[in-house]
Design goal:
Blueprint: E1 2-4, H1 6-11, H2 18-35, E2 38-41, H3 42-54, H4 60-70, E3 74-76, H5 80-93, H6 97-109, E4 113-115, E5 124-125, E6 128-131
Parallel strand pairs: 1-2, 1-4, 2-3, 4-6
Antiparallel strand pairs: 5-6
Helix pairs in contact: 5-6
């Protein structure tokens, strides 16, 4: 399973960098339609919506449509237990809390890979490799 960080979803909707947009669309499409192996968390959805409102000025209806598209990505809710786990990950690796929450969610789902440009590429967190496709 592959966990997608927020930047992957955002780049798929961002026209300012066509190369990153194409890569992100390919990753998401492949995960949804071919391998059925894409994962996200409610944190990713929250950050995505915030960015769509602020950066791209998308309307409520456009964001609703996008959320429907992402519905088939396996989703995990951020819970108190997940937050506590993220604190452990943060302390173990010395990373930012929200990055640790991504790692924790990916671990909880059973992912083997985290697709992100925010974490260190080629780094392994709790047995999960970080891949930066951009």
């Amino acid at each position: 399973m592959r966990f997608f960080d927020t930047n992957v979803l955002v780049y798929a909707q961002d026209d300012s960098d066509p190369r990153k947009r194409e890569i992100a669309i390919d990753l998401i499409t492949h995960a949804l339609e071919v391998n059925h192996d894409g994962c996200i968390s409610t944190q990713v959805l929250q950050e995505f919506c915030n960015t769509m409102y602020k950066k791209t000025k998308r309307t409520r209806q456009e964001i609703d449509t996008l959320l429907d598209y992402f519905r088939d990505l396996l989703e995990i809710d951020v819970t108190i237990d997940l937050v506590r786990h993220a604190i452990d990950v943060k302390e173990e690796y010395g990373i930012q809390f929200y990055d640790a929450l991504i790692v924790s969610a990916a671990e909880k789902i059973g992912c083997t890979e985290i697709v992100s440009e925010d974490l260190n590429p080629a780094q392994t967190y709790r047995g999960m490799a970080v891949v930066n496709p951009f």
